[in-house]
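During the practical work, I worked with a single protein chain and the C-alpha cells that describe its fold, as given directly below.
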Amino acid sequence: MARFTAIPNVPQAGVDYWQSQILNAVKTNVELLAGIGSELDGASKAITKSSVNVNIAPPQTMSQVTARGSGFTINSVQVPSLADYGELVGNVQQLANDVANLRNTLNNLINQLKG
C-alpha cells in the first residue's frame, strides 16, 4: 500500500491571491486522490498499482469447437451421432469453465477497485 505525506497549508503571507487559490486547489485535489486530508469523502481515492493484486485468469481451455455436427438421418429426421453429441457437451463445459474463471477474475478486480 502506498504511503502519502500530508501537504502543509498554503502560506497566507507573501503569496498573491491567485497563487493561493491555485495552490489550495492543487493541495485539495492531491489530498483527495491520496486519501488524506480534511475533505476526504471516502469515495474519492486514487488506486495505486501496488494496491491491485488480482491473479491472472487461468489460460483459456477452449480454443475451438471439436464437435463437427456429424450425424445420421433417421425417418427423414437428422440426429447427431452420440460421439459428436459427447464432443459438444464437452465443448460447452469447457466454455462454461472459461467464462466462470473470467467472471471470478473480473469480480475480484472490481472488489479491489471498490476498496
In short: The first strand starts at residue 71 and ends at 74. The chain has a mean pLDDT of 87. The beta strands are 71-74, 77-80.
